[in-house]
Amino acid sequence: MTRTDRHAWLLPSAMADTPADTPPGRRPRRTVRDWLVDALLFLLAAFVGLLAADSTDQLNSEAVALADQLVGAAACCALWLRRRWPVGVAVVLTVISTVAPVAGGAALAALFGVAVRRPVRETAVMGALAVVSSTAQVFLRPDPSLHPAAAVVVGIVVTLLVTAWGMLVRSRRQLVEALRERAHRAEAETELRAEQAQRLAREAIAREMHDVLAHRLTLLSVHAGALEFRPDAPPAQVARAAGVIRDSAHEALQDLREIIGVLRAPGEGGDGDRPQPTLASLDTLVEESRRAGTEVVLDIGLDGDPESGEESAAVPAATGRTVYRIAQEGLTNARKHAPGTEVTVILRGRPGDGLTVEVHNPAPTGPVPHVPGSGQGLIGLTERATLAGGRLEHGPAPDGGFALSAWLPWPP
């Protein structure tokens, strides 16, 4: 322990207990609550002093009574300095209360301030000094209405109660501060997990875009190679191959615009020629869920014609992948958290109006299994829909089940 630490109790409270966010050399400003507490302690000290003065005036002369009243008033006024010098004010008032009972209330208020603001060791020293002072006061300025032994016991009990009350307030403040810090830390960790989930979702989207882009470029290279090795091909075949190359290049440029700004996870490889699922793969996904034991109702109505497949082909590939992932996540969640229920997947939309995807399952009839998870998949879906220019909502349904709804743009 350094010399400064050994004598820290002699320093003003503004120097010994200054918060970290308070500028150096400045005391923290009092709040409205601080003013109210100080005013209440001042009134209580004045009330206790008046009671003590009333019980001792009959044994003292007028001069002594006047001096006691002046000392009591000064002691009450000194309480306004207890926040800056808690230990110093408490020592002075405790010593004065030994010969001036009217300062006893102010001494107890100062002792309470020490118990609230200072460590346990300093509080114990001040409590012991207060017990000695109250005991000595019984013999120096006795109260005629109390037996000396009873007065000593009352003084000790009151001192212990005030000290315990102050320490309890200090412990409660420390507990509240610890809980507040823990809540802030938990909130920061939650935000960090959400950011990590968003980053993982972006990386997954980037990998899918990379794979699709590689697939398109592979097709473009194949058709370009066919034109190179068949320069004598009929004009119709050359025109058809040129059209395929043009369309593939246009789609590759669109995918390249989407992948800009999204990072690929380092150290991960991918099969560049592997095509990713699209809207046309939704039927296969539903069939896989049905084979796994989940009852699925698929309702597709694109451009007002639920039986047509041409509209599905007209949906942009990136939007179709997002629809597929949303339906996949909805079916997976229903299978984990509501097994045995019927899942409804509804897809509606037309060019210019956008696509609407809804996945709904009712509440499970049996016990709900506990499946570990923190909803990171839904966070990733929300990030995916936002990057696609749409929005996604999820939560409990009115019938007690769970609903997942998303809107995605579909250019005209």
Explain what this protein looks like in three dimensions.
The protein is α+β, with helices and mostly antiparallel strands. Among the domains are: 3-145, no CATH class; 279-408, Heat Shock Protein 90 (2-Layer Sandwich). The chain has 13 helices and five strands. The protein has helices spanning 3-6, 13-16, 32-56, 62-78, 86-99, 104-117, 120-140, 148-229, 235-259, 282-291, 310-314, 317-337, 376-387, and strands at 295-302, 342-350, 354-361, 391-396, 402-408. A five-stranded mixed beta sheet has the order 1-2-3-5-4, with helices on one face. A hairpin with a 5-residue loop joins strand 4 (391-396) and strand 5. The chain starts with a helix and ends with a strand. Residues 1-25, 264-274 and 304-309 have low confidence and may be disordered.
Shape: rod-shaped
Strand/helix succession? HHHHHHHHHHEHHEEHEE
End-to-end separation in angstroms reads: 77 Å
* Biggest sheet architecture: 5 strands, mixed
| Overall average pLDDT | 75
Helix count equals: 13
- Which range does the strand content fall in? 5-15%
Q: What oligomeric assembly is this protein in?
A: single chain
What is the topology, as strand order, of the major beta sheet? 1-2-3-5-4
Specify the structural class: alpha+beta
How many strand elements?
5
Point out poorly predicted stretches.
Answer: 1-25, 264-274, 304-309
Share in helix: 55-70%
Give me the Rg, rounded. 40 Å
